[in-house]
Amino acid sequence: MEPKNHGPLVLVHGAWHGGWCWREVADKLERQGRRCYAPTLSGLAHRRAGLSRETSADTHVDDVASLIEALDLRGVTLVLHSYAGLLGPALLHRLRERLVEIAWLEAVIPSPGQRMLELTTPEAAARYVAQAASRGEGWWMPPPDVAQFQLPSDEMAQAVARQLTPQPLRSFAEPVTAPQAEVRGFPGRYLLASDRSPQPYLRYAAIAREAGWPVAEAPGGHLMMLTNSDAVVDFLS
């Protein structure tokens, strides 16, 4: 692979998670001398008290962009996991002069205007909507069963389950409305889990290859930052 940038990294978590999931990766990168920022998106994890019907993907775009702008970060590698990929086009439009690359970790790669419910599998989309209706007052999605993450131990599965919090349905059901850029014309790289079957992110790895980005594979499943942090650190350092 080509050498990576050595500026700051902004690590953005996926749905139901929080900045906590990046702790081990960030610690290892910081020991290498990298600056890491792992914001928690509005309404999630320790910010759960702020969850509301109005919390949207646009809210989450502003969370990340406002952090980067407030700290006047430049030369940033933006790292997007899973749902956070949905935010990529709007973040690129708003922050282009501050970013040098977007690293996609098992992340969706949207075209401007797409909704997260379109970017996941039809089965998963139907399940999320149904669970929001039956268990989430019609507007929030309860955390998924951690069994789907195929974590390596019961201890890790229980620890992750304790930390997952509801995700606003609006963030999946509505597109980002902020101005957006086409990410496929910007420098990027992609990391895919090699040990998932079925592997729903193969189509996004294919998009990455079509864009001319390097695509790496490593074992560890969808939550590779927890199960194989060394591979993620190697991908980013």
Automatic annotation (TrEMBL):
GO molecular function list: hydrolase activity
Record domain AB hydrolase-1: where: 9-234
Keyword flag Hydrolase: yes
Superkingdom of origin organism: Bacteria
InterPro entries given in the database record: AB_hydrolase_1, AB_hydrolase_fold, Sec-Metab_Biosynth_Hydrolase
Keyword Hydrolase annotated: yes
SUPFAM superfamilies: alpha/beta-Hydrolases (SSF53474)
Pfam family, one: Abhydrolase_6
UniProt keyword terms in alphabetical order: Hydrolase
The protein's name: Alpha/beta fold hydrolase
